[in-house]
User: Fold this.
Amino acid sequence: MPMDGVVADRRGRLLRGALAGAGITLAAVGLCAVAASEALVLGSTYAPKAVAGFAGVAALIVATLPEHHPFARFGWANHVTLARAALVALAAALIGEGDAPRIMAFAAALGSAAVALDFVDGRLARATGLASAFGARFDMETDAALVMVLAALAWQSGRIGPWVLASGLLRYAFVAAGRSWPWLRRALPPSFRRKAAAAVQMIALVVVLVPEVPPPAGMLVAAGALAFLCYSFLVDTLWLHAHAEDPRP
Assistant:
């Protein structure tokens, strides 16, 4: 088969796998959203918001896949991250749906499931030999979106002040600052501290949303996690500044 044919076949297999996974997950999001809307007595826009949110993510993933994904298969790890994105979409659609304990409990359950799966996709990618920069970025952006959504819901719950939004905004502020200071866009070395800070942040925000957790305890947990996250960003920023003049890798 000519080289062009090989590339076309590889791209076709990749897109078919991604589209199949996205389609199945989208259908699951729709069914879960309708069921949740009825069980929790949510507004009529909840299901459309959840479906539209996930559809937007899926479309972006499929559009960027051929250029950035180095393998002919989408991979089970990316399917797991796609499922995490679906959970984030279901949680994001709860924004504006009120602060009833049943709604916050559902948000905490969605967040817990997304956090649990976060410990699966990376290991699965390495185990199957399909680890890539694309998968790592997909996972990271899903984490960032989850933190932002959980922070917004924590504020919506009335159990914590608007300062909790800093948990989600920090990462986006860091990215925005990189447009003015290019040295902030350099690649960072792998760091367990950075991964731990993200995991602690997600878990802390889930704790805040659990109705049975007293608000003072939730505020303490959230404040401690935010302090750890700020420290992690500070360490990374200082490292990037110290290496600003190094030749770019």
Q: What stands out?
A: The helical segments are 3-40, 46-68, 76-92, 101-127, 133-156, 166-180, 192-209, 215-242. Residues 85 and 128 are 21 Å apart (CA to CA). The two ends are 36 Å apart (CA to CA).
